[in-house]
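Following the same procedure, backbone shapes were mapped to integers, yielding the entry below.
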Amino acid sequence: MNPIYLYLLASFIAVFGLLISFKKMVSIMEDKLEKGESVTKSSFQKEYNKFFITAPMIEFIPILLIVFSFIQMEEWAPQITQNDVILPMILIIIILLFGVLNVFLIRRRIVSISNIDSASKNFINTTTFMGISLISSIPALSIIGLILHIS
């Protein structure tokens, strides 16, 4: 299989898997906020730990796909042109934008809940940017890998 498409597959699995896991964690946060509870790191530790345990499990297969693609780089390098890389790179960028946009939409939905104290808002912002960084890590590696394939 062409290693270029392994990068696309790795990005797809990572973004959608992490997005689903992030939505589960944030839905618990949203339920607590709707009940009027304050959400801080100490009160949300169990869900945070669960998310940080599932995130590496979700990213395991995409990392293997990226490593496998790097291994195949020598074999496929003479056959891959710039035109072969453009479509997968555009699709990876679209997948990345979809994931980041969804995280911001989730954040906006949570912040729109009335009567949220500033500590909870700070925690929501921290969680949002943590989710964005996790979601964008594998697509960033995939884009770098694609650029290396055409060099």
